Amino acid sequence: MYLPLVVGVDGSEPSLRAVDWAADEATLHTVPLLVVFGTLWERYEGAALARELDGTSADTRADDILDAAVRRARRRHPHLVVTTEKVLDEAEHALVCAGRNASMIILGSRGRSGIADRLLGSVSRTVAAGSDCPVVVLRGNHDNRALGGRNGRVVVGVGEPSASVLRLAFTEERLRHGPLAAVRAWRCPAHETIDHPLLTAEPARLYEERAAGELEAALEDAPPDVAVRRHTVEGPARAVLPAASAEADLLVIGRRTQGRLGRVAHAVLHRSACPVVVVPERT
Q1: Cβ neighbours for 95, distance < 8 A, ≥ 6 positions apart
Q2: Residue among 277, 168, 261 at smallest CA distance from 223
Q3: What sign does the dihedral 51-55-59-61 (CA atoms) show?
Q4: Backbone phi and psi for residue 110, each to the nearest 5 degrees, phi listed first
Q5: Phi-psi category of residue 54: left, alpha or beta, with phi > 0 → left and psi -120 to 50 → alpha
Q6: 49-96: per-residue pLDDT in tens?
Q7: What is the pLDDT of residues 195-209, one digit of tens each?
């Protein structure tokens, strides 16, 4: 039995765009789509929802929002199996609970708060930190499509550990038929160059070689049918990975601590130019 892909909705424009992306992703993975609404959200009015409801958005109910999301997904993929779930709980709790029996959760970067797109909504942040399954937070502008973006390029940030992150990246690369870039960030401690001004390049070279070796070891079991391009990049991962996202359709990163986003994941979710998958790693 295939686990469904979950998408969270609240009637906002970002959440309806997330339905588009989730419908594409569910079709790619040949899994059903489950649309989840947390009923402790207040009723919502907005231009995007009004269009889905034939121009009327006053006194919108949870069932209206779910129906609009289902219609939107089925217009995009008529044969996709779509179900709904209305949960008597806060949005983040409802979605984390749904993720315990899901293959993936898809979320807009923000919901109904009206804050700027560059900021990350509290629901997206909480679910990405606490979910038992991978969470996609839609960042950047990719025409609301999981497939058919710039070039199908997937970027994966390789840290420690990285097994679950790499497995998902390999799967996404196969589905998108694009190149997979495995990125390992490295840094040379400042004191090692300051204390040895005549040997400035030598410590840096050693750290870069170490990073290349660690990247090669992580990719030792890469499937033969997946073409991986290896990149070691100087700088902190929280800056290197958002920079790599500029030419990507999907960025895959890991999360090591349950219930908390580390500094790297937090920075990437705020600054990425493409959708980000946060994968829980088992240490």
Answers
A1: 6, 8, 36, 38, 105, 107, 123, 127, 131
A2: 168
A3: negative
A4: -155, 165
A5: left
A6: 556 655 554 456 788 899 999 999 999 999 999 999 998 888 999 999
A7: 454 445 567 788 889
Distances (CA, A) of 126 to 33, 180, 257: 21, 28, 13
User: Which residues have C-beta within 8 Å of that of residue 103, sequence separation ≥ 6?
Assistant: 2, 3, 4, 5, 29, 31, 133, 134
Do the Cβ atoms of 156 and 252 come closer than 8 Å? Answer: yes
Cα 228 to Cα 48, 155, 222, distances in angstroms = 39, 10, 8
**Alpha-carbon separation of residue 194 from 164, 186, 200 (angstroms):** 38, 18, 8
Residue 58 CB neighbour total at 10 angstroms: 8
Dist. CA 56–CA 168, nearest whole Å = 41
Provide the whole-model pTM.
0.86
pLDDT of res. 195:
47
Nearest of 281, 43, 240, 60 to residue 157 by alpha carbon: 240
